[in-house]
Structures are given as C-alpha cells and as structure tokens.
Amino acid sequence: MANVRTKLRGLGCAEVLVNSLKNKAQDKSQAALNVKKPRRAEVNYCPQYPKGETTDSLEKERIALLSEVQKRNNDNIVTMKMQKTFSYRRQEVIQGQPFIADFKSRWPALFTEKEIDKEFLRISTVPLLSRFFYELDLYTPRMMELFRGKGGVAGRKMRHIMVAISKDDTIHTRRACILKSLCVYLNEDHEKLVKEFTVSYIHKMFCVM
Predict the structure, then answer these.
(1) pTM listed for this prediction
(2) Contacts of 41 (CB under 8 A, 6+ apart)
(3) Please, which residues have CB within 8 angstroms of residue 107's CB and are 6 or more apart in sequence?
(4) What is the average pLDDT score of the chain?
(5) If you write DSSP's letter for every residue of 40-94 in order, what string do you get?
C-alpha cells in the first residue's frame, strides 16, 4: 500500500494523475497549477470515464442533453444522461476551471434543484437536502438560544420572526424561522431569500399546470 498512488498513476487513474507534480510540470498553464486536492467528503472527486466511453462520445451526450432538458416531463432521461456524463463534467470542472456563465451554458440541466441534489450525491454519496435539514434540526435549539440573546434591531427582528413558532410549532415552521433569523443574524435580507423561493415555486406550479 506504500506506493498504491504511484501504481494508480501509472495505470492512468485521473484522480491521482490530476494532482501529480509530473503532470503539472508538463502543463504550465495556471489552471493546471491551481488544481485543488480532493476534500475528505469528495468520494468521487475525479472519476474515470465509463467503460467504452471517450471524450468525443460524452461530448455528443452533452449536446443531446441540451435538447432533452428543454422537453417537459423528461426528468428520467435527463437524470440518466447527467449520470452518464458525470465523469466528463467533473474533469471539466477540475482541470478546466471554467467560468460559471460558460459552465451554465454548457450544462443547464445541472442548475436545477433536483440535479444539484443528485450531483452532490454523485460526488459525496450523501444526499444534500436531507443532510442539510438533519444538521439544521440538530443545531436548532442552540441557534434559538443564540437568537434570543441577540440585542438591538437585529434581535427585535429575530424575536418577531420566531413568534410564528408559538402559533404553529411544526418542523417546517421551525426550519423557516431559523433560516430567516439566521439571515438577519448574518446581516442579510431574509425577504430576498423567501422571494426567490416563492418565485421559483410559482414558476414550477405554472410549468406543471
């Protein structure tokens, strides 16, 4: 096991090859020199292409995905193609470091609530939303104490927000109040957060109708 990474590098494993000093020495570009190492949670940091697939074949899948994402009630096909092109997309992010606008134009299917959750699952094998709400519920009692002890204008705003819990003490109300109060605590406008969510929700409702 002492030289397992060296052996994997010799076999062409992208995950260890991308951070190889020899590989970076060959490519003097700023993007190659700034390639970050995987974090502990990034299980599938830089996966290999699926067996039998190449850069050209996965690029064709990406182009086909651009038309599939515009169709209604086509989530299953979009998810299948997003899963198939995952390794291609990850290597593009890690090695190419594209601008967000360019990446969004190439992968518009990724910028949806459902696909963001699935992409996080592909990378870390952990579901994003359920994990987020689990951690939020875990720290809710401590954050409520923190908000109650806050003074000044921000404290009054948070106490006003938390009144909703006494009227309707459900898990959804608690989460909404905690997130709104956290925005105020961080000196952010919580109304913008709710407005964005509401607009997105209404848009989804019209799409379904």
Answers:
(1) 0.67
(2) 124, 126
(3) 62, 65, 89
(4) 81
(5) TT-TTSSPPPPTT--HHHHHHHHHHHHHHTTSTT-HHHHHHHHHHTHHHHHHIII
